[in-house]
Design goal:
Layout (H helix, E strand, L loop, with lengths): L4 E5 L2 E7 L3 H6 L15 E6 L5 E10 L2 E7 L3 H12 L5 E4 L4 E6 L1 H6 L10 E4 L2 E5 L8 E6 H10 L3 E2 L2 H10 L37 H9 L5 E10 L7 E4 L2 E8 L4 E6 L10 E4 L2 E5 L7
Length: 295
């Protein structure tokens, strides 16, 4: 990302969870420690199934007496209904503010040039009354701003940022091995921990119980993490969701997101698997990339 560019992520939505029980409510549900989220610290988190399977991921930002959840807009209604289902007698209000707030992303260097910024994952501060933070997943994803729709362009102009094609941003995210689009295609198809949520700072193993915690901890503690969600590139032909990936006629993975920024669930400990090697995927040839943050 170039320093002067900003990407208005109109495919992102905002839920607002507020009320006296909002912290306790989220703390009992999501994979990260909401107790650590405050006006100067945001986090990345996930809501899993009771079995620990992936359902939703989002960024949690402190806002007034509650929390903003920055999530993919196409699944925001599903997330809203799931949170309402868990609400029971909790004193919380859940609002969809996607028509009032908008999310934008910009270069890490630009973020650090703003007065008050720090090079800390999730570091958050106010700029022109808008929330600005360094992406809590990976600092190379840069800064992020959640702003009132009416004030966004004023803030961007003040920062000398010019709107650019969001495909540039999602290409960077893909190259970093971090999926952000079509996440509904992952639901219930893999464990949350297989989404690299340890490396992307979405799981706190020291916090108390949350939905899906038992299987998530068991997989980690017993060293049973044998599959990962990894980016793939088609070298020849075309692919579809659920296509099997093979090496020497041995299945080593399956395509879960098949588009310009594709991802597959890969048996990365399989002896047939090697990074930067071409594999068969149906009638196509594909290559799996190893993100630079993955050991």
């Amino acid at each position: 990302m170039k320093t002067e560019k900003v990407y208005i992520l109109d495919d992102r939505g905002i839920l607002y969870v507020n009320g006296p029980d909002s912290k306790k409510f989220l703390q009992n549900l999501v994979s990260n420690d909401v107790e650590k989220v405050n006006e100067s610290k945001s986090c990345f988190a996930s809501l899993l199934s009771p079995q620990g399977k992936f359902l939703f991921d989002f960024i949690v930002v402190k806002h007034k007496d509650g929390y903003l959840l920055d999530c993919e807009k196409k699944i925001i209604d599903q997330l809203y209904k799931k949170l309402v289902m868990y609400k029971l007698k909790s004193k919380v209000q859940i609002l969809n503010l996607s028509n009032e707030f908008v999310v934008a992303a910009f270069n890490q260097e630009k973020f650090l040039s703003i007065e008050g910024a720090r090079e800390e994952l999730g570091y958050t501060f106010k700029y022109n009354e808008d929330h600005i933070f360094l992406d809590p997943r990976n600092k190379k994803l840069g800064g992020r701003i959640i702003a009132n729709l009416e004030k966004l362009y004023m803030s961007l102009k003040k920062m000398n940022l010019k709107s650019s094609n969001i495909d540039e941003y999602y290409k960077l995210s893909f190259e970093l091995g971090i999926p952000q689009s079509n996440m509904d295609q992952l639901q219930e198809k893999l464990f949350g921990i297989e989404c690299n949520f340890i490396e992307l700072n979405a799981i706190d193993f020291k916090k108390g119980c949350y939905v899906g915690q038992e299987n998530t901890s068991r997989i980690k503690n017993k060293d049973k993490l044998n599959k990962r969600l990894l980016p793939l590139q088609v070298k020849k032909g075309s692919i579809n969701n659920n296509d099997t990936i093979t090496s020497n006629n041995v299945e080593i993975g399956k395509v879960l997101i098949a588009n310009k920024f594709s991802f597959a669930l890969i048996k990365f400990r399989n002896k047939e698997f090697k990074y930067n090697k071409e594999f068969k995927c149906g009638k196509a040839n594909i290559e799996i990339f190893k993100p630079n943050w993955l050991n």
